[in-house]
Amino acid sequence: MAISPPARSTRRQFLKTTSTVGGSLIIMGTKATAGIRGANDRVRIAVAGLSGRGQSHIDGWSKAENVEIAYVIDPAANVLQSRLRGLEKRSEGKLATAGVADFREALDDKNLDAISVATPNHWHSLITIKAAQAGKHVYVEKPMSHDVAEGRVAVEAQKKYGVVVQHGTQRRSSAGIAGLHEALKSGELPRLKIAYGYCCKPRSGIGTKPAGRPPADLNWDLWKGPAVIDQYHGNYHPYNWHWFWETGNGDLNNQGTHQLDVARWAIDDDQTHPVRAMSIGGRFAWDDQGETPNTMFSFAEYPNGQMVFFNVRNVNYKGYQNQVFNEYYLEDGSVITGEGNYQIRRPGAKQAEKLKLSPGHVTPGGNWNSFISAVRAADPSMANGNVMDAHYGCVLGHLMNNSYRLGEPTPFNADAGKLLGNADAEDHFGRLHAIMRDGVGISDGSTQYQLGKHLTFDPTTERFTGDFADAANSLIKDDDRPGFEIPGLEAV
């Protein structure tokens, strides 16, 4: 079902009428805003979601050559006006940017070429799908999807309408990372056994805030969008929505999406989704309102036997070790570490050595300019992190999260690792447990882990099978609020 038509925002302000230079753009192609001619190849883009990462989008597009930020979009009027003031100052008073609360107003502009999505996660797929239907190219922040099913709809929308969709996983623009993965898959290096990602950055608890009225400047109905939320509380806006299942996906599919995507990128190219996944973890020490785990170890196995391990560890403590990177365990016993520039510790070696590799193939220009190049060429294959890469990486995280969400309590001790059913996973979980016990100071037996279910998944149907399938399949698709439904595949 389509979302309801946009209501004109009473806070809408056009500081100046937007226009193209040298006349109207000439649009080529049949399905989408395609190759762009006229106005010296100017690309007109809208930025949706202006807090946090949205400011980075504004900065990125402002520095891109011959790109016009035609719209900035946010349901919080104060944030919207602040960003407009910043753009006006940057343009020395010659602002040609419209500020609107509702992204649908921007999509109605036939001369808009693309939209850049930095909203909360629960909006990512719906805006991507609606933009594709309107013939607009999409740069969408990670994760592209909030659940498995809506990610598949976004994929089908991109295929049908032929737009460029690029995921906000900037490491996809690294020729160094691409070079390592090409070497792993070409046989230049021993075969990959385990791709391991870490999202270990210190965070703090968010406390507990009571239900109440949203701020006067916030259009709460638009902010919620598809999310089914009973009442507002102050931890939803502007950032802590990450730690609630209705709106976010925890750090595994927040910061962790970058490292998850890199890990999945290393898996053989003929693999799509895992066939098995499991997680164990908890939300320790903070005693707050958040729902998602601050500590979690997860693993997933692909049909060819290759595995992805993942580690979330956010609770700060004296001596905390930041780990936001990837490791690669090879079948010959070698271990590769680094990001772009790598070291390899070979079996029996006392220390690692520098790994010399040729750069891999990416569209040049970094994440911002590579997208603009793909838009100008109307070539989705040029996207560094295309819609399929985005979908496969996000689903990997969704499966791990779903295992955790279906979990049951088990005592907090090292023996919990024996329940994982995999020797390598047990070893790496043991290292995480030791940090939580000895570093954070959580005593064995004083609390409980949430032990996730061993889930099996059919990569073709994108449905769970076997034990716990009914419960797991209930998490494949979130409920949507009326008026903001994700279209079904048949309605794309």
TrEMBL record:
Membrane spanning residue stretches: none
Enzyme class, UniProt record, top EC level: oxidoreductase
Keywords (A to Z) from UniProt: Oxidoreductase
Record-listed E.C. numbers: 1.1.1.312
Protein name: 4-carboxy-2-hydroxymuconate-6-semialdehyde dehydrogenase
One MF annotation (Gene Ontology) recorded for this entry: nucleotide binding
Name of the gene: ligC_2
Chaperone is among the record's keywords: no
Stored InterPro entries: Gfo/Idh/MocA-like_OxRdtase_N, Gfo/Idh/MocA_oxidrdct_glycsds, GFO_IDH_MocA-like_dom, NAD(P)-bd_dom_sf, TAT_signal
Residue ranges constituting the GFO/IDH/MocA-like oxidoreductase domain according to the UniProt record: 233-323
Organism: Allorhodopirellula heiligendammensis
Gene3D superfamilies associated with the record: Dihydrodipicolinate Reductase, domain 2 (3.30.360.10), NAD(P)-binding Rossmann-like Domain (3.40.50.720)
UniProt domain Gfo/Idh/MocA-like oxidoreductase N-terminal: residue ranges: 43-168
